[in-house]
Structures are given as structure tokens and as C-alpha cells.
Amino acid sequence: xxxxxxxxxxxxxxxxxxxxxxxxxxxxxxxxxxxxxxxxxxxxxxxxxxxxxxxxxxxxxxxxxxxxxxxxxxxxxxxxxxxxxxxxxxxxxxxxxxxxxxxxxxxxxxxxxxxxxxxxxxxxxxxxxxxxxxxxxxxxxxxxxxxxxxxxxxxxxxxxxxxxxxxxxxxxxxxxxxxxxxxxxxxxxxxxxxxxxxxxxxxxxxxxxxxxxxxxxxxxxxxxxxxxxxxxxxxxxxxxxxxxxxxxxxxx
Length: 252
Hints:
Family: Belongs to the methyltransferase superfamily. Type-7 methyltransferase family.
Strand content: 15-25%
Protein name: Loganate O-methyltransferase
GO molecular function, one term: loganate O-methyltransferase activity
Helix content: 25-40%
Pfam families: Methyltransf_7
Keywords: Methyltransferase, Transferase
């Protein structure tokens, strides 16, 4: 198939530079394959950077590579909704953003069943179940929206932050970071910490497959792979300086 332009959307782009690396890798792979199959013809690339409306798009655009070979546009809004016309995107990409939920599960907030904690892990079983159910619904909304926006035969690559089991996360560097944050907040405002919860959920591999295959039959899963993270290993809770260093570097 001969195209005039190839559209790429990066969902949850933040302010870079990771999004630029991802886009350039996609363009390199697609461009090379297109040239081989279409007698060395060139292809124009249009890249849409998406994130929430309060994302610092000014910094994002100021940081764009000066030698880029693609056109750019910012698209503010929640990626849990449709953001583009039907069948208008050729490649959808989302990296380490889908664990963020659009809001805290209402039953957790209204019933106050997670008092003294700012995350679901380490709390009551019903809290974890509420977050898991909420994540499943939101991930389904994400997939349905992308299913409408992608052209027939379009591709989507997702890098999802998750753990094999709850106990693995709780003892990992990532778990320790939020435990430290939670204890700091509790010391600062014991009365108000009960009304604050971080709205993220780290799904297991089996949960992702269940949502992708059993709930949403819009996509054919071509390949899945596991990637190690520095914060997935067990760390000493005393290594506060190391936690701070990783988070300042944007390591997840």
C-alpha cells in the first residue's frame, strides 16, 4: 500500500525526552520498511503528542529535536477517551502511563476504607479489588478508543508498568518509594492524609492478557515481552537517597 503520510500518536507523552526516542525509533523502522516495499519512495510523518491538559506542552515543544524529520502537534486530553477521528492513526504508542487511573475508585473515597494509606498496596483486600476493577474498566476504555482511531491493520505498542504479584511490588524499590512518601504525608497531616490516594494500579501479566483478549477483541496481540526496571528489585528501605536519585532521573 502506498501512503502519502503516516500518522503516529504517543499517548501520555509528558515533556520528553523519552517520547522523542520512541517516536524516532518508530519512524526509523516504518520508514525503512516503506522504502524497501515501495521502490525507495519517501513518506511524510505526522506525530501527535498527547497528555493531560495541564501537561507542560511548552517545555515539550521547546525540547523537540532540531533535526527531526516529522511534523508535530499537541493533543491535550485524557487518553481514556477518543481524541482523533475514526481510522486516522496508523501507529499508537503508550509507554509507562497506563497505570495512572483517571480518578480514585469512588467506593474507596466515599467509604474511607483506605485510611492511613495513599496507595492500594498493603491495604485491605477490598481496596485492591476496587482498584483492579477500576483499572480493568479504564484499560478497556483506552482500548476501545484506540480501536476506533486506528486504521484497519494499524499497529499499537504499549509499555505497561506492572508486577507479577502484589507481594513482589510491596518489597520492591517502587513500593518503598510510595511507602516513604505516604509516611511523610502522614507525619505532615495526619487528619488529611485519609482523603488522599494516589490513583495508579500496576496490573499483572495475567490481568493485562485477560483485558486484551477476553474483554476486548478489537486487537490481535502480536508480541508481548517483559522488561526489567531498576525499581522492580528488592531494596533496603534505608536507601532513601537512591530512591530520590532514581525519581529525579525519571526512572520507573
